[in-house]
């Protein structure tokens, strides 16, 4: 099996470092926005239990994006 060539932080170019930092900031912003929305939104406006969406929102990009796409009930939706 071939060994993956992982670069350390010091070996990365300045542009690569900036990219890593930018992705980290976007990921944290999405997670914080999802957590804040879950806190402020009534449980009746969320599909499923709030606790489950809180836990899911901690999973990289997939959790917060899943919450914003699937977790919130749309205005005017009948359930």
Characteristics:
79 residues; mainly alpha; 3 helices
* Mean pLDDT across every amino acid position: 91
Decide which structural class fits the backbone.
Answer: mainly alpha
Rg for CA atoms: 18 Å
Q: Please report the distance between the alpha carbons of the first and last residues.
A: 52 Å
Portion in beta strands: under 5%
Show unreliable segments: none
Shape: elongated
Number of helices: 3
Query: Share of helix among residues?
Result: 55-70%
Biggest pleated sheet: none
Give me the strand/helix succession.
HHH
Number of strands: 0
What would you say this structure looks like, in words?
The structure is a single chain. The protein has three helices and no strands. With 79 residues, the chain is an all-alpha fold. It has a domain at 20-71. The longest helix has 27 residues, at 14-40. It is elongated, with a radius of gyration of 18 Å.
In a few lines, what is going on in this structure?
The chain has 79 residues and is mostly helical. It has helices at 14-40, 50-56, 62-71.
